[in-house]
Amino acid sequence: MDAKSPFDSTVYADVIICSSDSVNFYVIRSLLCCVSLPLRDMFQLNRGPAIEHNVMKDGLPVIDFAENSETLYLLLTLLYPRGEEPGLDDCSLFWRVGKAAQKYCMDVIEAKLQRLIRSSTLMQSEPLRMYAILVNLGWNEIASLAAQNTLATPLEKLVGVNELREISGADYYTFLEYRLRCSKSAKPENERLIRPSGILPLLYSVDTAPPQVEGLEKSGLPMHSKEPFDSSARADAILRSSDSVDFFVLESILRISSPVFEDTFSANRARNSGIETNDKLPVVPVEERSETLRQLLLLIYPYDDESIIHDVVLFSNVAVAARKYKMSAVEKKLQRQLVGSPLLSKEPLQVYTRAVSLGFKEAAELAAKSMLSQELQDMTYVKGLDHITGMDLHHLLEYRFKCGDAALMVWEMVDKRELFDSEYGRSSYNRTSMNYWTSRRYDTLDKSTAEKLKARPRGSTITEFDDQLVQKIAEIPEMSDRYHDGILRAEAVCKFLKSLQRIAAEVEDEVSKVPLVVDGDTDVELPQAASGTR
User: Fold this and answer.
1) pLDDT digit string (tens) for 351-380?
2) Membrane-crossing residues (predicted)?
3) Global pTM?
């Protein structure tokens, strides 16, 4: 079918572009060529002898575009001279047109879109969605305006949007850090987004974007690896790392451990290829660096002491290599290692980012829980955020707030009298003993503990010995005349601490029931792929 006016059949058109949903747009070739070098090249390919291979309609060549008709209509409307400029009232359409303008290098259209979106109602009605889209387009200055428009919504009320899957966790961290800074600022309207240095494009596919890019390098003459993979090792093959370190290995162990190495060695043997060294052993170059390759081999070989990796980035590189070579047994070993690793408490955010990118859900859950011991304000940027999506980090934020709600629910159900009054709960308890002074202490304890639990929803928050807890213990003997006896005072303090421990255990139990959402594959309407010709 033909597009609606002004892109329907007209005597001025000299080419037809066909959308992905088979709508024909009659356009003026020279106008498109003026604003887009890629389109100029595309049209050049459809002239001369090549025109014979085109589908023709009404005597005009038809060229396929990957964009749908809705996207092309707005793109062309912005390009053609018209009295009224179109309104922008659809986030997804705006995004698709922006990506198309970038694909075809239409700087004029990009400038128009940037001007129009500033005054669009979308910036107010869909600020988080627009932030993600604008960051995805690389329009960070306008993204700051969208971020500012989210300030009216508390962080715990922000609902995740699909577009967060198309920006990196580092980009979302930039937004989160801005929001936290605004919450402490006397003039939040003066705050601006501050992007951590070195933020990379979104790299969340572990198969295509390993945490540390490794490849073949030129490092001069090869060196021998250290034991147990040096030249003295029993070996019938050599693996050469990308930084030119030779590992003397047994081919049979690699074949058993990896179907990829099985195919590699079989192919080399079939064509009798492979580089011969002075040791007369075939050399197989690999893309991994020596430190990664060494740890991988240590996990394959049957040694009594299993190699433990204490560096998050190295761990991630080894896991990526294990997946690349289809070493399922090694992947399982690595998952078990990470679940019991001290890295969970030392570098929980790093572990979370790597575990999410690798699909290690149990480790991601443990890392997320470990992060609850620190306040959100204390979360600092780590490079691993480049390898997860903004939605992955948003899920972590939602998890924290849900844990805070669960912890507060436990605390709100506690009768605070049992903490201070050793007689409470006994048949002889005198209810009139709860005077105004005592009630005020309960209120103070309730408020201060609730605030701490919201910031750090863990059982340890209840029992940690800080100045407030010491003050509460010091106040216990003063709450009633019957505490003049030293033994009674000691009993009261013990009861107070035991009650806190019980409440802490209940908090931990409820927090443990909160699920962490780990993102899976989700269908998001993305800008279309490159176009072709019929």
Assistant:
1) 999 999 999 999 999 999 999 999 999 999
2) none
3) 0.83
